[in-house]
């Protein structure tokens, strides 16, 4: 069996870790060379982009692209993990919270912001994952990091009737830079309104150009496993440039090219084969990652 080289866009179900999904795709693809372009928490669902074979080398670049989410924030309850999987640490009355207040507070999170990641995250602190330090009983204080929220839409503000304690649920849709923690926005919205908050639902709707329309469930993949060819994946994710035969040979030897590019660009042989990613540097295009010998 030939090792597949391409992307698999999975609609991850709740309850599975990203590693669980990778393990299943390894079995379906018949190779251990499978990775993912950014994790999803077990509670979260939606787009998880995996790469197989040579396409695993694309994943590091895809991790830097923007992402889109649908989420529900519950105001009035704070948890240790800033989501529904953690223990409740505080509650507060939400009787006085209005929709206008929620919308005004959320508007402060749009644009270039400084965000303190949730303590229960995979960020390493002195070589150890932050979430592991929290589990070990340590107090973890992470530094604020610059992130960008390109768009944040309030879909609905509602009061769940099924809960004994009055709370306010806020449904949002957002587009943001890689590294943005939606859980932290839930936490910070609650703090801004003085009632606390956490995330009760999260669905990733896109990673770069790959949306739910391209995603398949694990059951669908089990019935008919196929990958998005690496050529198609590269053209979808990056600006593309079609080379001539002489330029193709230069790429195969890892040489710089006299191309006028402004962003990381996928370059292709006259045959259509995907060859490499090139970046602009010093007035020329230089190889960032070459995928052929």
Q: If you had to describe this structure to a student in words, what would you say it looks like?
A:
The chain has 293 residues and is of the alpha+beta class. It has three domains: 6-65 and 208-232, 2-Layer Sandwich (Pseudouridine synthase), CATH 3.30.2350.10; 67-204, 2-Layer Sandwich (Pseudouridine synthase), CATH 3.30.2350.10; 238-290, Archaeosine Trna-guanine Transglycosylase, Chain: A, domain 4, CATH 2.30.130. Helix content is 22%, strand content 35%. The chain contains eight helices and 18 strands. The strands form four sheets. Strands 1, 2, 3, 4, 7, 10, 11, 12, 13 and 14 form a ten-stranded mixed β-sheet that branches. A hairpin with a 2-residue loop joins strand 17 (274-281) and strand 18 (284-290). The longest helix has 12 residues, at 18-29. The protein is elongated and about 70 Å long. The two termini are 22 Å apart. The mean pLDDT is 91. The active site is at residue 41. This is tRNA pseudouridine synthase B. Residues 183-226 form the tRNA pseudouridylate synthase B C-terminal domain. Residues 238-291 form the tRNA pseudouridine synthase II TruB subfamily 2 C-terminal domain. Its EC number is 5.4.99.25.
Would you spell out the secondary-structure blueprint of this structure?
Elements: E1 6-12, H1 18-29, E2 34-36, E3 45-52, H2 59-62, E4 67-75, E5 77-79, E6 88-91, H3 99-107, E7 111-115, E8 124-125, E9 128-129, H4 130-135, E10 145-158, E11 168-176, H5 182-193, E12 197-207, E13 210-211, H6 218-223, E14 228-229, H7 230-237, E15 240-242, H8 245-252, E16 265-268, E17 274-281, E18 284-290
Parallel strand pairs: 3-12, 15-16
Antiparallel strand pairs: 1-3, 1-14, 2-3, 4-11, 4-12, 5-6, 7-10, 8-9, 10-11, 12-13, 16-17, 17-18
Helix pairs in contact: 3-5
